[in-house]
Amino acid sequence: MKHNMVDLVGQYKKIKPEVDGAILKILSEASFINGPAVKSFQKNFEDYLGVKHVIPCANGTDALQVALMALDLKPGDEVITTSFTFIATAEVIALLKLTPVLVDVDPDTFNIDPQAVEAAITPKTKAIIPVHLFGQSADIHTIKQIAKKHDLFVIEDTAQAVGADFTCPESGKTKKIGTFGHIGCTSFFPSKNLGAYGDGGAIFTNDDELAAKMRVVVNHGMTTRYYHDEIGVNSRLDSIQAAVLDIKLKYLDEYSKIRQEAATYYNNAFASSPKIKTPVTADFTTHVFHQYTLVLIDVDREGLMKHLADKGIASAIYYPVPLHLQKAYLDPRYKEGDFPVTEALSKTVISLPIHTELTPEIQKEITDAVLEFVEK
Predict the structure, then answer these.
(1) Rounded CA gap, 97 and 234, in Å?
(2) 132's torsion region: left (phi>0), alpha (psi -120 to 50) or beta?
(3) pLDDT per residue over 25-36, tens digit each?
(4) Which residue, of 3, 257, 337, 340, has the fewest CB within 10 Å?
(5) pTM tops 0.85, yes or no
(6) Could you give the CA distance from residue 57 to residue 62 in angstroms, rounded to a whole number?
(7) Are residues 186 and 289 in the same domain?
(8) Does a structural domain hold residue 2?
């Protein structure tokens, strides 16, 4: 592709001396697992988020699974989440023999609808997993109020929105998302806003007991070597990935600013088109644009994607099939038509390239190509 969804090569070239030096240091010391680089990144990420505890792990899916394992939930307990998300959010619920309860999303932000969450609560409900989709916060204040009212856990999935801020409408205080619930989780998949050069993830919390439990769970359930007090997993962030992340963390706010400027360019270019709905940012959050996602109105989406591909421009659909219609998650509780907003979005959204290496010249090529097809 001439213009890919992300440009990790271009990003790497700008920080190449730092990255190469850090990796060579780990190679020379052979400190591959739980080395100084992991401890450094953990501390710096705690400081960045303003959270007491960060527990690095192997990937974002593990982060969600370990978070649920730490809550001592029982098979059949219900966990509410959105149907408009990547499969990992529901996957870990099902893997632990818990019951995923899916709900619809807000038509403007695409984030989980708090009213739908409250309507889905039953005596079996134990937790809520709001997904901060595409780069902005869900209405975590309202979700926390609902959770407190019903004595539920909140696990924030920040895999697409690390670095975004949420401002509480009552106190006016601003904090990083992922620090409002009982536990926050994120992914460091290479294409993420804060991405490693392989798999990686992290869990964060201000709860000392939960942090201690999760540190045990990620390490085979061990408190003392070869003494296993919990059922655990093997989920570690390796030193090379931690070193890369520690470097990129210093640039994360700059990366977010570049993405926001790119989104503004797109918004302005598409503002006059009646067939394109540009992203809406809620007034309580910043948006770090992990994805730049449009809603098409009476446009042949597949035709547009082919038109862009013919010009060497990548595009993507996040997500073409809602969770409640996925073969693996078909459930008699749900049928097509139950979540009208989610189902409409799955048929009309399209995401365009957005990354730290975009230039106005590249974006003009992209926007001109989109408008050429849409307005013909």
Answers:
(1) 19
(2) beta
(3) 999 999 999 999
(4) 337
(5) yes
(6) 7
(7) no
(8) no
